[in-house]
Amino acid sequence: MKDATIDEICASPKKLVHFWLQDDSPEPAPVGLIGRLFGKKKSEVPKCTATRVDGDETDVDKAWDAIDYLISEKRTKLGLARFITEGGTEIHEDVGYGGARAYYSRDVKKISDLLNEIDLKVLRRSYEPREMDNSDVYPQFYVRGGDDIFDYVSTNFLSLKAFLHESASQNEGVLLIFT
Question: 97 is in which domain, residue-wise?
């Protein structure tokens, strides 16, 4: 997404709902009896001028917290290494599990550069299933899942890394949304 779209949504957070859901945007809430008696009208959902395009998203499923934990080396690194759960520009409009985090193109480039320095060997060094379960890394099934779970996490990490690399190469910003 273009930085201008992020600016538009940040200036009017309700536009996030329209941008994210596009055709599935909710209808305005009905006005109750008392509101109608006093002439209240339905409030329209503000529309974003930008539209989404095919391939404009990636999904890391339930691996998001493990990726955050591993790329931040067990949450010892701060800043961009914690971009999944911290940072960016918060947009306080519920579109899933809370609002969204917006990252402008300049930040996406920095995050992409950071992730380019991380390979699966780096992730494997921090991957300790028992410690992750004990540290409440969502969804806490690492001991039970064994090596298959590392494969699941690493596949989702590589997908996220590729998506951010492509976004950075196109000078695009991103929204991080939990659904």
Answer: 3-177
